[in-house]
Amino acid sequence: MTALSLLGIPNDDNSSYLKGSALAPPLIRRELHCDAYSIRSESGIDFGAPGRLLDHGDLRFDDGVDPWQTIERGVERALAAGGPLLCLGGDHAVTHPILRAVRRHQPRLTIVHIDAHADLYDAYQGNPRSHASPFARIMEEGLADRLIQIGLRTINDEHRAQFERFGVEVIEAAAWREGLRLQLDTPVYVSLDLDGLDPAYAPGVSHREPGGASPRQVIDLLQGIAQPIVAGDIVEYNPSCDIANLTAAVAAKLVKELGGRMIETAPHRDGGD
User: Fold this and answer.
1) Residue of 194, 239, 229 whose CA lies nearest to 213
2) What's the pLDDT at 272?
3) Cα 156 from chain centroid (whole Å)
4) Residue 169 and residue 76: Cα distance in Å, rounded?
5) Helix (H, G, I), strand (E, B), or coil: what is residue 252?
6) d(CA 5, CA 267)
7) Is residue 50 helix, strand or coil?
8) I need a labelling partner for 102 at 20 to 30 A (CA). Which of 71, 78, 137, 223 fits?
9) Contact 46, 260 (CB under 8 A)
10) Of the candidates 136, 131, 149, which has an alpha carbon nearest to the alpha carbon of residue 91?
11) How far is the CA of 113 from the CAs of 40, 144, 218, in angstroms?
12) What was the pLDDT predicted at 268?
């Protein structure tokens, strides 16, 4: 049985406006295991089945240790379990060290990035590790062969220059149509920023940007990915901004749907759910 590994990365050191996303992983887990909801994905993957979900807990960040080193080593340990890995942030900055570890196992890799923001600043507010900058670092270091950004609706001139520099493929929010399918030919890493959703569905984020996607659009896009989804993250849930745990529930739903698709696309998976 293919197991989905889950790892919490409670770090928001590089958030630029409001901190709080470091509190997210246990709250997403609480919703994931809440009796109010089904623990199955829509496609039938049962995360309550013994051995289906391997939770590695949350990383601990110690004083005097570079958090990037802690994240990279923690992800490497989780990847050693052999199945796909889904990380719970934390702010979007953590995607950079996650991908440092993932890339060592994937000679070819495409990132599918769902977000309101490009997160491609060279250095935001003077911080090259900002949560507004991870994909600049990722592409500079060659941690992916291809970057597809979907749902963007805050593009400026610096972003456009970075798109050209790194060969980024962009599907802006205004161009996201029902039935969107991506043409992919490598293993995939999915990075899902919850502010990619419209704040009507996910108000619990630090940077609300109206005009975004619905959970249905995101789920349909994920279900259309046929290449192996080897790893991914769900980031930027800020509980201090949430309303009635709505965003936590949406995040947990996306854990099941993204995680289910990871299991379904995993090489040599068994035939059961």
Assistant:
1) 194
2) 46
3) 23
4) 28
5) helix
6) 15
7) coil
8) 223
9) no
10) 131
11) 24, 12, 11
12) 67
pLDDT at 269: 46
pLDDT by 10-residue block (mean), the chain, 273 residues: 97 96 98 96 97 98 96 98 96 98 98 98 96 98 98 98 98 94 97 98 98 97 98 98 98 98 83 46
Give pLDDT, residue 267: 86
Query: In the chain, what are the helix, strand and coil shares in percent, each to the nearest 5?
Result: 35, 20, 45
Query: Which pLDDT value is given to residue 178?
Result: 86
d(CA 176, CA 160): 19
Residue 172: partners with Cβ closer than 8 Å, 6 or more residues away = 151, 152, 153, 155
CA torsion through residues 30, 216, 148, 20, sign: negative
Q: What is the pLDDT of residue 254?
A: 98
CB 199 within 8 A of CB 241: no
DSSP state of 56: E
**Reported pTM:** 0.96
Q: How far is CA 253 from CA 19, 68, 212, in A?
A: 23, 28, 18
Residues 6+ apart with CB under 8 A from 113: 119, 135, 147, 148, 149, 150, 190, 191, 193
Residues comprising the chain, all counted: 273
Compute the C-alpha angle 36/60/249, nearest 5°: 20
What is the rounded distance in angstroms from the CA atom of residue 100 to the CA atom of residue 69?
A: 10
For strands 229-235 and 85-89, give the pairing.
parallel
